[in-house]
TrEMBL record:
Protein name stated in the entry: Nucleotide-diphospho-sugar transferase domain-containing protein
Transmembrane segments: 12-35
Gene Ontology cellular component terms for the protein in this record: Golgi apparatus
GO function term, MF aspect, one: glycosyltransferase activity
Matches recorded under InterPro entries: Nucl-diP-sugar_transferase, UDP-D-xylose:L-fucose_XylT
Organism of origin: Capitella teleta
Keywords, in A-Z order: Membrane, Transmembrane, Transmembrane helix
Length: 523
């Protein structure tokens, strides 16, 4: 309630600036609990809005925005674009609060790293830009999309569609100024400055390739009359039918139309240079940070996977995440547990075995106030070209994040991330091995050879059925309490999930809810 009141008070300020209609609609929206649905929800764009932007939030550090002349509290989007263009071209990114972490990542992995300065983030809610600016990202809030007049559409179902159409409007603004516009989604990482790769100089559009059509998440538009017509028409479609067809469909439909009549020249960018998520990660077998790099790739689009949680996890696991929020990487105090899944995939019950090991790791981590670094998993289906699997091959990342907590575990590639201090990486315990009944069975079945575990410290709980007691775990690990990374050979059968341990039933229920089965694309 307080939040809503605050927002409304802000709206009162707009009143004085001549936005009385906006505030009225805003009140109506609050009546409909419009903002409670989260950051994903916005009213559809108004037919004839002014493309106002406001800086809002804390002021830009002057060093960050030296080139930009965005100083007044209300400036036009066009002025903001003009201030950020270099060499007649600009990269535009439309973003809302729900995707702020990914936007920070795009900035760090791509714009900052490659020194691409001609970018502008366009925020479409009231919080996202102030959040981004704290990270030195140049962002202007677009007022036209919020709290303005809207139709009677059903917010819940139409919002996403409407939001994507807004990108069309933003591109159009750049084109009308006579600039080349590269529009990119936030779930993208650039490996190279893409501009030299847009080589079709007489093309109106150069667009990345999805499975069957152009992907509106990454394309270059040149400021030609056909490109402007395309965007103006796609925007019209969006206004009329934006609740039913996506931005990509609207754009592609117009593209096809104009192409058929030879009114526009389009180039589909090579999938080899501009791969989508299927080509880069799946066909390219890139599941971990140490997978072969893609030397020819200009960028990758982390698409063809569902849920934001899984996208973020995939970026992290493949070494494409440089967002250090809450010292996710850089903490020097935090302590970790590392373990592997050495039993190979031909074991008949590999799924159960690896689930049990991960459960045991989470349990130990809780006891020891440490954070689990995920292992690699095996294939749970017969495979000819078997490879190691990340967590999303087997479980729903959204559930795992929800019940384990996104900050309570780390990706398998964690220790190889350049943001992790070398002091942490080097501070590791000897390899420990807790003897369990399960391990004894595996040894008997010749899946495992404990005798050959050289330089491994064997720890023997007094009751192999129960697993190590709390006291035993603390005693085993006490000598390494100062060590950052507590390294276990494996953790098969340390704790049986069904058995209930001293962590309490609520904790066990939580952890079992975390293991919701999923498959790689999380569909
Ligand atoms: C647990 O570890 C964190 C560091 O990751 C530390 O800040 C916290 O004080 C520890 N809690 C306890 C109870 O030791
Ligand atoms: C995997 O298991 C098979 C038995 O199914 C065994 O022949 C093979 O040596 C094992 N591979 C490794 C690397 O342990
Ligand atoms: C181990 O624990 C189980 C379950 O509490 C118990 O039945 C068994 O007697 C214990 N074994 C030993 C050797 O203490």
């Amino acid at each position: 309630m307080k939040h809503q009141k605050l927002k409304c008070r802000r709206e009162l300020a707009y009143l004085t600036l001549g936005f009385s209609a906006a505030c009225f609609m805003y009140m109506v929206l609050i009546q409909y609990n419009y903002f409670k649905v989260g950051n994903e929800m916005y009213p559809p764009p108004q037919v004839d809005f002014a493309d106002r932007v406001t800086l809002g939030g804390p002021a830009l550090p002057s060093a960050v925005d030296a080139r930009a002349t965005i100083t007044s509290s209300f400036v036009g989007l066009k002025e903001a674009i003009r201030a950020r263009v270099i060499g007649g071209a600009i990269v535009l990114v439309v973003v809302d609060s729900g995707y702020i972490e990914m936007a920070i990542n795009l900035h760090r992995t791509s714009f900052e790293k490659l020194q691409i300065d001609n970018y502008l983030f366009v925020g479409i809610d009231h919080q996202v830009c102030s959040g981004l600016r704290l990270h030195g990202v140049v962002c202007v809030t677009h007022e036209g999309f919020m709290g303005e007049k809207n139709s009677d559409s059903n917010w819940g179902s139409t919002e996403f569609m409407q939001k994507t159409h807004f990108k069309t409007r933003v591109v159009l603004q750049g084109l009308q100024l006579g600039f080349q516009v590269l529009i990119t989604d936030v779930d993208v990482v650039f490996f190279k400055n893409p501009f030299p790769y847009f080589t079709c100089s007489d093309c109106d559009i150069e667009i990345s390739n999805d499975i069957s059509e152009g992907n509106s998440g990454f394309y270059l538009a040149r400021p030609t009359s056909p490109a402007r017509t395309l965007h103006a028409s796609a925007w019209e479609i969006g206004k009329v039918a934006g609740d039913r067809i996506s931005n990509q469909k609207a754009l592609n439909r117009m593209l096809e139309n104009m192409q058929m009549k030879n009114e526009i020249k389009i180039k589909f960018l090579s999938k080899y240079l501009f791969p989508n998520g299927v080509d880069y990660f799946e066909s390219g077998h890139r599941y971990f940070a140490d997978s072969p790099a893609c030397s020819q790739c200009v960028m990758v689009h982390n698409n063809w996977i569902l849920t934001k949680a899984a996208k973020v996890y995939r970026f992290k696991e493949t070494g494409l995440w440089l967002n250090d929020r809450h010292q996710y990487y850089s903490s020097t105090d935090r302590k970790y547990i590392l373990f592997a899944n050495p039993v190979n995939s031909s074991y008949e019950d590999i799924r159960k075995l690896e689930k049990n090991a991960l459960y045991s790791a989470l349990h130990l981590a809780k006891l020891l106030n440490r954070t689990v670094i995920l292992p690699r998993f095996h294939s749970y289906k017969p495979c000819t070209f078997c490879h190691d699997h990340p967590l999303n091959s087997h479980y729903s990342i959204a559930s795992f994040d929800k019940y384990v907590g996104i900050d309570n575990y780390r990706e398998n590639s964690f220790l190889s991330n350049p943001l992790v201090p070398s002091g942490v990486v080097q501070s590791t315990s000897p390899q420990l091995h807790i003897r369990t009944r399960k391990v004894d069975q595996l040894v008997r079945a010749q899946r495992y050879e404990i005798d050959r575990l050289e330089e491994t410290l064997m720890l023997n709980p007094s009751n192999l059925t129960l697993g190590p007691s709390r006291g035993e775990v603390l005693a085993f690990c006490a000598p390494y309490s100062h060590v950052s990374v507590l390294r276990f050979h494996s953790l098969y059968g340390v704790y049986e999930m069904e058995r209930g341990h001293d962590m309490g039933a609520a904790y066990d229920a939580l952890i079992s809810a975390a293991f919701k089965r999923g498959q790689y694309r999380q569909l």
